[in-house]
Amino acid sequence: MDLATLIGIIFGVTLLGGAIVMDGNAIIFYNLRSILIVIGGTLAGTMISYSLGELLKIPALVRIAFQTHQLDSDEIIDLMVGFAEKARREGLLALEQDVVNINDDFLQKGIQLVVDGTDPELVRNIMETKLTFLEERHGKGRSIMATMGQLAPAFGMIGTLIGLIQMLSELDDPSKLGGGMAVALITTLYGALLANLLFIPLAGKLKERSEDEILTKEVIIEGVLSIQAGENPRIVDEKLRAFLAEDVHTGQSAGAEMDTMAVGDNA
Amino acid sequence: MDLATLIGIIFGVTLLGGAIVMDGNAIIFYNLRSILIVIGGTLAGTMISYSLGELLKIPALVRIAFQTHQLDSDEIIDLMVGFAEKARREGLLALEQDVVNINDDFLQKGIQLVVDGTDPELVRNIMETKLTFLEERHGKGRSIMATMGQLAPAFGMIGTLIGLIQMLSELDDPSKLGGGMAVALITTLYGALLANLLFIPLAGKLKERSEDEILTKEVIIEGVLSIQAGENPRIVDEKLRAFLAEDVHTGQSAGAEMDTMAVGDNA
Amino acid sequence: MDLATLIGIIFGVTLLGGAIVMDGNAIIFYNLRSILIVIGGTLAGTMISYSLGELLKIPALVRIAFQTHQLDSDEIIDLMVGFAEKARREGLLALEQDVVNINDDFLQKGIQLVVDGTDPELVRNIMETKLTFLEERHGKGRSIMATMGQLAPAFGMIGTLIGLIQMLSELDDPSKLGGGMAVALITTLYGALLANLLFIPLAGKLKERSEDEILTKEVIIEGVLSIQAGENPRIVDEKLRAFLAEDVHTGQSAGAEMDTMAVGDNA
Amino acid sequence: MDLATLIGIIFGVTLLGGAIVMDGNAIIFYNLRSILIVIGGTLAGTMISYSLGELLKIPALVRIAFQTHQLDSDEIIDLMVGFAEKARREGLLALEQDVVNINDDFLQKGIQLVVDGTDPELVRNIMETKLTFLEERHGKGRSIMATMGQLAPAFGMIGTLIGLIQMLSELDDPSKLGGGMAVALITTLYGALLANLLFIPLAGKLKERSEDEILTKEVIIEGVLSIQAGENPRIVDEKLRAFLAEDVHTGQSAGAEMDTMAVGDNA
Amino acid sequence: MDLATLIGIIFGVTLLGGAIVMDGNAIIFYNLRSILIVIGGTLAGTMISYSLGELLKIPALVRIAFQTHQLDSDEIIDLMVGFAEKARREGLLALEQDVVNINDDFLQKGIQLVVDGTDPELVRNIMETKLTFLEERHGKGRSIMATMGQLAPAFGMIGTLIGLIQMLSELDDPSKLGGGMAVALITTLYGALLANLLFIPLAGKLKERSEDEILTKEVIIEGVLSIQAGENPRIVDEKLRAFLAEDVHTGQSAGAEMDTMAVGDNA
Q1: Residue pLDDT, tens place only, E160-203
Q2: Per-residue pLDDT tens digits for C105-143
Q3: How far apart are CA E67 and CA E74, in angstroms?
Q4: From the centroid of its chain, how far is CA C47?
Q5: In the predicted structure, residue C227 carries a pLDDT above the cut 70
Q6: CA distance B56 to chain A (A)
Q7: CB count in 10 Å sphere of residue B63
Q8: Where in this chain does the record put each MotA/TolQ/ExbB proton channel domain (chains A, B, C, D, E) (predicted)?
Q9: How far, CA to CA in Å, does C231 sit from each of A264, B80, C41, C239, C243?
Q10: CA torsion, points B173, B178, B179, B180, in degrees to nearest 10?
């Protein structure tokens, strides 16, 4: 599980729930009609924008956002450097027996192409085309979340307008104005909460996940082509780690930067 | 029919209609003047922005959004792989008799150019130019919808301003304030509904349709050039399927990803 | 005249005027001070943003938006295909006598360069540089309209703020609140109308005009270079029509798409 | 002086001032605290965003916006065509004596590099690098103005919120509500005026200035490289004027377009 | 310390604090629940958007914004020009003894690669890959700040909605309306202040820092490759200073421009 996403949602809900309860009666914040308008309207708008096939992926998208990122780039680089050594010693065909044991589909496909003696240009072509479509698929998932993040506040406002029009047109006793407005505003609140605590942050998280996955796939393409070209395993290692270095060391190096800077300050 | 679009609109209208009826008198939500201002203003602004020719395409645009996407990319790839085999065996001229039977205009034009012995560079040139203009035409259709999605809320607000100014300037009995405001707000509601339940989602749907069609056309260009180059049919097949693989397997692979991840969670 | 632009404005004004008159007293919508603030403020902001030379082009911009698009691309292609034939038969110098009769400045300049024996690379260079600056000039015209479309609502709001501050600070009789607010809101209405019925749609129309003109000029560049290269007139024709095909057939092909689809629906 | 900028500001201030005075008491629009909040908050936010060095350039930026554009591109082209002739006749070294008399730093540097016998690739490299950084510097200046144009309305709203909270929390006499709201709204008015009459239009003007200067520098790079390459002076002239043609003839040609079109209309 | 950032924050807080105190009771601006909603909600949304690793870098990001920029590009260029001279005289291997003394990690890595005899193409490859990931890391830091700058006002509005709904639904004594609204608006004020005085300006400052650092790294890449290519030290110097010239002279040259222009004005 990705703790940040889960903790974030629990923390946000607890906090806002607490703020609501702290000051009195929580029941006034529940309104079935408002839920129907905001969630229903958002779903309706999303259904019109995307095909059914895309919509059925929403639950999968949400689950992906909650998963810990498990691609171990270091392991994949070690694997590819090993292949590079073996290919240099025993030839590319010797990799055939390793193909079945690779548990990353993308790397497996790449090595298979190399073993089959496919032209390097075509290997790059096929793998980059696959990566391009992965990016597009990820982009579509993200854009569904972002669309929901735009529609939710819009339908929140629509619900409030409906409530206001009903309330105002039937207003005979001015003392009921306050209560009516309170009910009307609940829909706006629902829309704002759904967008800012759910849809927009989840779209952000999907973007981050996607970038990580694409980076790993770029490393794999570079590595497969280096193996095919029979490059020196040491150089393959150096080249592939350049892709990841910053990412892996970020925590450390950011800390290091800060330390040096802090020292500079004291001086 | 594209079920998602139709179901989305029916669902959205039913739901919002239900929410309105649920709480009382639906007749207060009908206002002829508001309809005139929002729809008329939106059409007027769109007419000024685009030429008449473009405007007359709006009904066709709406219909396209309701169509199920019918391009069967797999079938087109099979057809092209078949052409590649025939061309290798019997030469490019042998494709002449197949040209008339191709029921995709774009592919037909491409094969015709190949049969005519056009220079490959020029074939690519002509087909890519055609694709570029298809993209532009699609982009224009989408931008008409998006323009309407911007103008509708603007004229909704304009109608509310007109209503408020009239009501406030003639206000002698404060008890009528509520009813007057209710009527004034209806125009804003119409504008928001048209934009968020119709124009903006339809613009999104047109974008998705356009991307599908452009992808298929890119596959066709790649395939026609491979046929002309006399490439190995097996490799043509491999190359073209790389374009589609992710799209076709998405459902499955997303599911697969989830499963592995879910297993990882339980472990 | 471009009917869409004119009809759009007349339609919009009539409709909104009708909506105003329909419900009573139209005179309350006239306010000189509001006109001064919105139009004056918008002009002032635009004057600060652009140089005087640019501002004096506004009337010309507006007129362009009302013109029917008269560039006949088919005629220009026919002309260029004719030149290509003549150049092949009689040599490039034979075009000299035709130069003076060309009534498109851009094509004339191009053929003149070819007749002068200018290096093809330089011909492309000069013509593309000219086109780039045409695009920039068009872009500037459009951005003036877009700037006015942003400033008008801003000064509408500024006028309303001024009205509200005056009214509220002198409010002794609460019964006058309504009338005061009505007057204050008129400025916002003016700003919204000017932006959504005039400036923003006109900016859109200028964009469409510009795209048409640039497309024709791109066809001319391609044609002039083909003539200079002595390409086969039939291929020149084919290449240039690829640029326009979609544009010319749009109506038809959109209709055709619809028909096939409609048939598919009934089936 | 750039008349448009100055006239625009005077006109805008006069007009809005007039609109304020026209309807009564101008003194109610003066509020020291509102000035402090809007101007102070905008400056504070800008100071945090940019380094001190950048901030000290604001007065220079404002002055640049008021300057008439004085780069005479025609003169620079004449000068370079003259150099091209001299270089062809007497060799590149003959330009050495002219270098000190060039009063444009960028052209001077370019000719110096040519005289020094620098490799053409490196000349282009150095001059384009310089131009890139000029663009970045201009972009930064513009972004400071644009940042202020965003912060001013934000702090206007912040000031109004502060005023409303104070006023509402101490409200015992409802009849004072109007006056309190009037005062609170003044800050929003200040923010909107500063942004729409000053910061945003000045950012626009800086953009226009920057584009002019960059265009001239591009012409200089092209010219210096042509001189170094020993190109025919007549062709150098032709090539460089292609950059400027549209700009210089704009007024005329826009007029010409209109005339032909107008004639077409009458016909 | 970066004075602008610190002074900006102190100045902004003092000024707004002063404006609040000036007019009375400051205590009404303190509300614990509002702080919890705005800060808690913003943190929750940010946690959902980013992984835990990214969030823990926020304090480091803030500290970086407060640091004075300490990269002395001139010193680095001098160092590299020195290396270029030494490498020309004594060969690339002679640089080995200098590597350990370089206190810039990026330059050290580059020289090490050169000393190791790595292929120039690969040196550029590795260094540019590292730079690309530095840019991405910086971009992510900035986007965290920008996300917080968007979420803070959103949760400010959410808090105000919660407050309004509670207040209105329990409103029995209309005289308490003012006080209730004052409390509800405080959350909006907090959100607007955090965004406009902290998050958005800090995101801007991080962008400026990042651009400076990337520029220096680009200079280093260019320099390392020139050293490896054995270029003339004088030309290396010239080439590298072209990157920085504008930046270093900005103050002066902007001043110079102003002077000339001012003189032009007086004339």
Answers
A1: 999 999 888 877 777 778 888 888 999 999 999 999 999 999 99
A2: 889 999 999 998 888 988 998 899 888 888 888 888 899
A3: 19
A4: 21
A5: yes
A6: 22
A7: 15
A8: 101-217
A9: 69, 30, 57, 11, 17
A10: 70
pLDDT at B68: 64
B-chain residues near A134 (CB < 8 A): 246
Q: How far is B226 from chain C (nearest CA, A)?
A: 21
- The structure tokens 């004088």 sit at E234
Cα A217 to Cα A76, A105, A134: the distances in Å are 10, 10, 10
How close is the nearest chain E Cα to the Cα of D234, in Å? 31
Q: Which amino acid is at A49?
A: S
Determine whether C183 is exposed, middle or buried from the number of CB atoms within 10 Å of its CB (0-12, 13-18, 19+). buried
Dist. CA A244–CA B171, nearest whole Å: 70
Count chain C–chain D contacts defined by CB atoms under 8 A: 175
* Residue ranges of domains in chain D: 3-21+31-249
- Contacts of residue B65, defined as CB under 8 A and 6 or more positions apart, other chains included, come to A48, B2, B5, B202, B205, B206, B209
Give the torsion sign (CA, A94, A96, A100, A104): positive
3-class DSSP string for chain D: CCHHHHHHHHHHHHHHHHHHHHCCCHHHHCCHHHHHHHHHHHHHHHHHHCCHHHHCCHHHHHHHHHCCCCCCHHHHHHHHHHHHHHHHHHCHHHHHHHHCCCCCHHHHHHHHHHHCCCCHHHHHHHHHHHHHHHHHHHHHHHHHHHHHHHHHHHHHHHHHHHHHHHHHHCCCCHHHHHHHHHHHHHHHHHHHHHHHHHHHHHHHHHHHHHHHHHHHHHHHHHHHHHHHCCCCHHHHHHHHHHHHHHHHHHHHHHHHHHHHHHHHHHC
Interface mutation target, options C1, C9, C15, chain B, most CBs of B under 10 Å: C15
Band (A148; pLDDT cuts 50, 70, 90): very high
Residues 6+ apart with CB under 8 A from A256: none
B188 band by pLDDT with thresholds 50, 70 and 90? very high
Among chain B residues, the shortest Cα distance to A187 is held by B19
Cβ-defined contact of A170 to B24 (cutoff 8 Å): yes
Q: Which chains touch B (3 or more CB pairs under 8 A)?
A: A, C
What does the alpha-carbon distance between residue A188 and residue A154 come to, in Å, rounded to a whole number? 8
In the structure encoding, which two tokens stand for residue B137, read together? 């035409």
Which pair of tokens denotes residue C45?
A: 């902001």
pTM of the complete model: 0.86
Q: Give the chain E residue nearest D48 (alpha carbons).
A: E5
Is the Cβ pair E20, D47 closer than 8 Å? no
Q: Which residues of B touch C262 (CB under 8 A)?
A: 63
Contact C196 B41 (CB under 8 A): yes
- Across the interface, do A243 and E40 touch by the CB < 8 Å criterion? no
Chain-centroid distance of CA E43 in Å reads 20
pLDDT tens-digit series, residues B218-243 = 889 999 999 999 888 988 888 888 77
DSSP secondary structure code for residue E202 in this structure: H
Structure tokens of E201? 């300006």
